[in-house]
Amino acid sequence: MSRLAARALLAVVFWPSLFFFWFLGPFVFFLLSTTSSEVCPRLETRAEFLAAANGTLPMLVLQNLIYAVPLICLVLWSWLLPDQARTGHVVTCIKLFAVAAILGALWEYGSSLVCDGYGRPFFSPAWRMTSYLPIANLAVNIPLYVLAFSLGRTFSMREDDPPADPIRPDENAP
């Protein structure tokens, strides 16, 4: 398979996954949250509450694996077209993604531990501080989205395109 075909295949995977997983995915996973407002009133004991919160962990792992698809495409593109500057930016994307994944997991897991349905605090008030993590996560995700989008655009464009407006000599000139 030629490098151009491999790059095109990566672009076919990268752009839809970037849009659907990174931009629409958080809304879907938020709606699938295990300890929603309907579940909290039914939990009566600390053990039931912990079991419900721990039930969210597999979904958090799956969510982060799905979110990693655009990053995997960036790593493969970087491998196909080695460039020191781009590789550094891909590494920055991976670091930002790791921080965003940790903040997101803490927020989702922490937010599932703050309600017990009866107003009794089961856990430390520190878990209530997780309500501020979406702001920190947003501060990390905005540069991540911009960098991943610009890298994807750079990697998916052909580098061997002829100039857009070639100058043609006038054949009728003396």
From TrEMBL:
Q: Which keywords fit this entry according to its UniProt record?
A: Membrane, Transmembrane, Transmembrane helix
What is the official name of this protein in its record? Transmembrane protein
Transmembrane intervals:
61-81, 88-109, 129-148
